[in-house]
């Protein structure tokens, strides 16, 4: 009996401890739809307490951070009311620099989404309504079941334009479930049942089962009729994470990190020129028939540093076409280094691909950094600290003891001005945030 009493007491004590711990956690984090202010002492606790928490690592002097604040304030109450709520928090990484270094925060603002403790850097839009739509993806079900035409329409509209959408029509749900869980961070997945012929016409397929891949941002659709086993279905999904022809910029370069295919890269003088439409149409047709390759294009005017890596500048003969391995080498096809405006574009691209397949190529090395080099080309905070120190020393020697404004503040403001002057906004919703939209 004494043992039983001891067990009862211990059980009661444990239950009380858990209750007190939960109460303490609730007291520590007052989740009322407002942005939580984190510190180095409660950061780990916050990450473990909430299933999904979005953290803004900021610096008080950062202009982009200041502009982001009202957007986070507006998004926080909306995300808090979701069936699976998302908490928005922020941490002064300038003040808690030791924690920031530990987490490898090297620019401001750095936005991180922690889903069950697993971090993922956020590169989506920053406007409140678009941010809400983007983040809802990560607490949605892996695969949605759509049982009417209206449900299909609502699903596609709610998905927005940031992620590709895959809908299986007449497809066994079990075939999609595993892919939906595996690639949750990359796309929306659904299976549709009892749909009408009107939906089949609008999505341009004529029989079921079929899997439709839709890229809202690029107005593209692809249809897959099978086979649905032995990895063919997954291969189709992986190939359609990217559009048929990808415009290359700092944002889209990050999409290539997990893609092992080589890229047929076309370098033009200016992406906005009206003549580009015909060339993209030809590239899209070639891409559809060569899914083992990624097709992309870049304008010298828009991304000169990247284009110059392939020995293509405003003085070079353009458009230039190469096959890039995504690292430090690319292939030119002998006799077809450029695309002429006088001849049919698709004929020239087809001839280029034929030469590449037959090995009539010359291998060259890029002038600049590799793919990862371009992705990581932003100045890190450690570099800024070194610059700040050198500036402080120089100013101290020059001032001969005169009191000067702290060098760090001047450097920070200069960095803000530099970023504001060099950051340009491209078209479409995805331009709301680019990796360069950070201040060191």
Automatic annotation (TrEMBL):
**Domain Thioredoxin per the UniProt entry, residue ranges:** 16-140
Tell me where the signal peptide lies: 1-21
Question: Could you identify this protein by its name?
Answer: Thioredoxin domain-containing protein
Q: Which UniProt keywords apply?
A: Disulfide bond, Membrane, Redox-active center, Signal, Transmembrane, Transmembrane helix
Report how it sits in the membrane: Single-pass membrane protein
Q: Name one Pfam family in it.
A: Thioredoxin
Q: Which intervals carry biased composition (Basic and acidic residues)?
A: 408-420, 430-440
Q: Which PROSITE patterns match?
A: THIOREDOXIN_1, THIOREDOXIN_2
Q: Which residues cross the membrane?
A: 379-400
A GO MF annotation of the entry reads: protein disulfide isomerase activity
Q: Where in the cell is it found?
A: Membrane
Q: Name one GO biological process term.
A: response to endoplasmic reticulum stress
Record's keyword annotation contains Transmembrane helix:
yes
**Family assignment?**
Belongs to the protein disulfide isomerase family.
UniProt GO cellular component terms: endoplasmic reticulum; membrane
Q: Where is this protein primarily located?
A: membrane
Ranges where the record places region Disordered:
408-440
């Amino acid at each position: 009996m004494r043992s039983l009493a001891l067990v009862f007491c211990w059980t009661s004590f444990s239950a009380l401890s858990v209750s007190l711990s939960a109460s303490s956690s609730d007291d520590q984090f007052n989740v009322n739809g407002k942005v939580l202010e984190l510190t180095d002492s409660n950061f780990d606790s916050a990450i473990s307490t909430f299933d999904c928490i979005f953290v803004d690592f900021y610096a008080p002097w950062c202009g982009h951070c200041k502009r982001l604040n009202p957007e986070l304030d507006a998004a926080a109450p909306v995300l808090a009311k979701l069936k699976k709520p998302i908490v928005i928090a922020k941490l002064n990484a300038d003040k808690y620099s030791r924690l920031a270094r530990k987490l490898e925060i090297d620019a401001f603002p750095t936005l991180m989404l922690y889903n069950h403790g697993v971090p993922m850097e956020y590169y989506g839009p920053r406007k409140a309504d678009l941010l809400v739509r983007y983040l809802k993806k990560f607490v949605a079900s892996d695969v949605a079941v759509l049982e009417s035409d209206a449900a299909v329409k609502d699903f596609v509209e709610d998905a927005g334009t940031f992620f590709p959408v895959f809908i299986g029509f007449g497809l066994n749900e079990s075939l999609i479930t595993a892919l939906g869980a595996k690639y949750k961070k990359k796309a929306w997945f659904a299976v549709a049942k009892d749909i009408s012929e009107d939906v089949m016409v609008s999505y341009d397929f004529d029989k079921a089962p079929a899997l439709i891949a839709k890229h809202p941002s690029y107005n593209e659709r692809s249809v897959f009729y099978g086979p649905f086993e032995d990895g063919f279905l997954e291969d189709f999904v992986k190939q359609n994470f990217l559009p048929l022809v990808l415009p290359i910029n700092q944002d889209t370069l990050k999409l290539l990190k997990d893609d092992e295919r080589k890229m047929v890269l076309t370098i033009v003088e200016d992406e906005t020129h009206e003549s580009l439409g015909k060339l993209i149409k030809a590239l899209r047709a070639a891409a559809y028939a060569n899914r083992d390759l990624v097709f992309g294009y870049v304008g010298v005017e828009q991304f000169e540093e990247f284009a110059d890596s392939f020995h293509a500048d405003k003085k070079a003969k353009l458009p230039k076409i190469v096959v890039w391995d995504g690292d430090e080498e690319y292939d030119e096809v002998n006799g077809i280094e450029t695309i002429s405006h006088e001849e049919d574009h698709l004929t020239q691209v087809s001839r280029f691909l034929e030469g590449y397949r037959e090995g009539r190529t010359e291998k060259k090395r890029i002038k600049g950094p590799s793919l990862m080099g371009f992705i990581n080309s932003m100045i890190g905070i450690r570099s800024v600290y070194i610059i700040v120190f050198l500036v402080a020393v120089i100013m101290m020697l020059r001032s001969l003891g005169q009191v000067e404004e702290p060098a760090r503040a001047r450097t920070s403001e200069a960095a803000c001005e530099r970023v504001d002057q060099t950051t340009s906004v491209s078209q479409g919703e995805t331009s709301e945030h680019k990796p360069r939209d950070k201040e060191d």
